Amino acid sequence: MRTWLSTHRLFLLLLLVLIALRLPHINRPLSKHHDFNNAVILINAVSWSQAGGAANVGYTPFMNFQGNSNRVLENGPHIDANGNHVYLSFGAGWYVLPYFVFHFLQIPPTPLALEILNIFIGLFTVSLLYKLLRQWLANEQQTIQAVALFALLPAPLWYMGHSYVTTGIMLPLVLCVLLLWRKAASTSNALTASFHLQLFVVIVMLMYFDWVAAFLAAGMGVWGLASMKRNNTYVGLFFTAGISAAVGIGLIFYQFAQYLSWQQVVDYWSSRSAYRTIANQDEGWLTMIRHCITHIGSGYIGLILLLGIITFRQKSIRWLSIPNDWLSWAMIAVLIYNLILFHWSASHEFAWMAFALVFTIWLFVHKYEWISTLSKPVFFLIVAQGLLQYFLINLPGEKGITGTAYNDQQLKAKHITASIPPNAAVFVNMQNPKIIEWYSKRTFNYVPTKKEAIRIADSLQLKPVFWIDRMEADSMKIQSVR
To answer: Which of 7, 74, 174, 386 maximizes the CB count within 10 A of its CB?
Structure first.
């Protein structure tokens, strides 16, 4: 009789490999490749504590520290009555989770603590994916290949490791939606009251992290209507999915409106949706498409190579025909999410994390007969290419591929802290230097020129006031202007 250890030895080996691959970057200073997100999560955790606890501000995410010298001197729906820069683009889940973990473990918010939390969530995601695919796929080899291909892509390696993003930590909930969807597709007898309650809870929870929940709920609801010809009970999916999405959005709106106002939340969401959706044509279609291709190529190269090699062998893309089943509906729902939020998808490679996950599952469920034609060395080389690209983008050691030291922004922050008193207002001509803000434990105000900084300081009677020029360059200059 085979033991549990022998049955799952390849998966356990994969987990060890995933941990080992993260070690060269463990506790690396925040520096590049969307470490901005880590910085804002850590700033918020400190800011909530400075405000007397998250409950005092309704768990509304802040992008600045507290104190008069850290007030954001701007106007708009992103600024509250106390001069805090609020962030309402998503639900507050990805801010709340680390905040509670830090408080529960009684540890300070640090880049290392956030990184370790992210790695644990990533390993849990991979474990859940393995558990589900063991039930859905034919054999262990097929399952290991699917899990390894996804987990060893450059983007999942980075965003389920060093760099904390909402599209990474939400993936366990995406898998839970897929699990329930598959259960519903298997038999209408699964659509019990307990099933509908589980679906409601999962979609509402997922919504608190990311809007992909709305698209998965819409896809499931429409699929439910289309499945009514099999059994009328599937209409219940339409109502449960719709109600869940509405409640999830409503709870987020209510939370933010309680702290701000309903009008300010509406104004914020209107401005952000205009900026992040397909309606934004500031950069033009060709530029955004080029950015998407670049991001998909840099973050998901293994999937691209797999598709390219099989298509080349078949001399046709007909092998990628899409069957009309629940998993295809789920894949298309997530793709629509990326297309509707096209400006966001074109700007961030991590925006494609959910699609990469669902697409990988879809490939190995529906197209394994073609994948299995690849020899083991070819499949290994596909995965190895992703690893090579991952380490080229994020070189181990003290410097990146451009030669810039990873601690460059940390050292600049140290210089700023030593040169500027904590009660001073600071103006800079670099937008959103959140990593330097985190390390210097202060918030900067952006203005394009020193003259404009002096004008604002005079109008608000601020004192002392400092101006930092060329913060992004080695020739950074710090001047006292008031």
So the answer is: 174
